[in-house]
Specification:
By secondary structure, the chain is of the alpha+beta class. Helix content is 59%, strand content 12%. β4 and β5 (286-290) form a beta hairpin.
Length: 376
Amino acid sequence: MKSGSLTNLIVYSIVAVVLIALGVLAFHALVPESPQPEVEQARAAIARARDQQSGIYSPRLFREAQNNYDSAMAAWRSENERFILLRNYERVIIFAESAEKNAEDAMRNTASRSKSLKSSLESEIARLNREMALFEKIFLSMPLPQDVRKKHSRGKLLIKEAEIDFSKERYVDGNLKITEANEYISGTYNLARVTLQEYFKHYPEWQEWAMETIEQSRKNGSYAILVEKIPPQCHLYHGGKKKYTFEAEFGTNWLGDKKSRGDMATPEGKYTVTRKLSGGATKYHKALLINYPNKIDVQEFNERIRSGQLPVDASIGDMIEIHGEGGKGGHWTQGCVALKDSDMDILYRYASKGTQVTIIGSALTLEEFFSSRENL
């Protein structure tokens, strides 16, 4: 081959290579840049938001982040189906950047809301625990309806579950449980309080009975027994002065006056001892039988029959005593007043036939009673 031809061939080859290279460079310059960096940043931001539980604490923002990310991926797939030089990833990048911003906003909102929910949950747990403890101090010994006790127990369980959620930083779940617990605890507390307020409407009458009993003891220099249900105590007076105070237990349905036989309620009113029982005469260590029903009890019973409050076949009941074998830690009798045997020995020693026995709801006002329990 002639040298001139060889030179031309080399020149042509170099030109061809240069042209191809320029073509490749031009082609790459015309190919749109991949949106992968923006999409990856959005994906990473959403993953961090998910780890911080933004789906729970900031559900709207987190959902928007996911929707924008899905839109970015859909737009990317759609563009990739077009001829490479005609692809436009602008919408992909816009969606990806929006997704990243949504995720970052969700994380900031999550941090703020989590802190707020934590504080709120901690405060509500403490408040309801105090309210529950107060309820148990004041009302748990009351003969409340079974559904009230069940609601109280349910509320107590929900507080424990909320405490577990708090310890595991599940503040949303904990706040849902504590809100439900509040309905149970506050509801039962309010119902029990209303019940007690109704009961204490008889306070003026109780106060009058107690004052008359103590005054009679003072005037006659005699012994008198004053029993109060709230708090459950039996007092022995002599010459108008309190000599002994014993813990007492009553009928299981003790809140309120006795209305009929079998209602498990301890009567309220002014009575006297009719018999002293010991040895084989009583199965409760020692006992003081009182004159229930008295004339007033019979009148009230007959009125309840007439008004339809009691069925016509109801009977009034009898055999109410102050007796021993108490100290069981709860109200358990069928309507009697029970003391520890050692306390009953003392009361039995000083009491006699004719000793006045007055049974009242409380010597305290309702406010004084609440105050005394709150300070325990």
